[in-house]
Amino acid sequence: MAEAGALIPDDLLDRFTFCGTPGDVIEHATEVYEAGATRIEFDTPFGLTEHGGIKLLGEQVLPALRARGIGTL
Fold this sequence. Notes:
With 73 residues, the chain is mainly alpha-helical. The chain has a domain at 19-34 and 57-73. The chain has helices at 2-6, 10-16, 22-34, 50-67. Helix 3 (22-34) crosses helix 4. The longest helix is centred in the C-terminal third of the chain and has 18 residues, at 50-67. The radius of gyration is 13 Å and the shape is globular.
């Protein structure tokens, strides 16, 4: 797996993954939306712990994106 992962350039991986602090995820999702995406999905893994990651997503990321006019639930 490590060898296969090494074949994926970081810049390509960065385009398809949302990671970092809630602020990082908010900014990246905003950039993707502004580039023309009509749908953004967040999937596992959800941070260092699943519970903590989902909590950050629900309490910080999604409200910030909604405030920017991105996404509706």
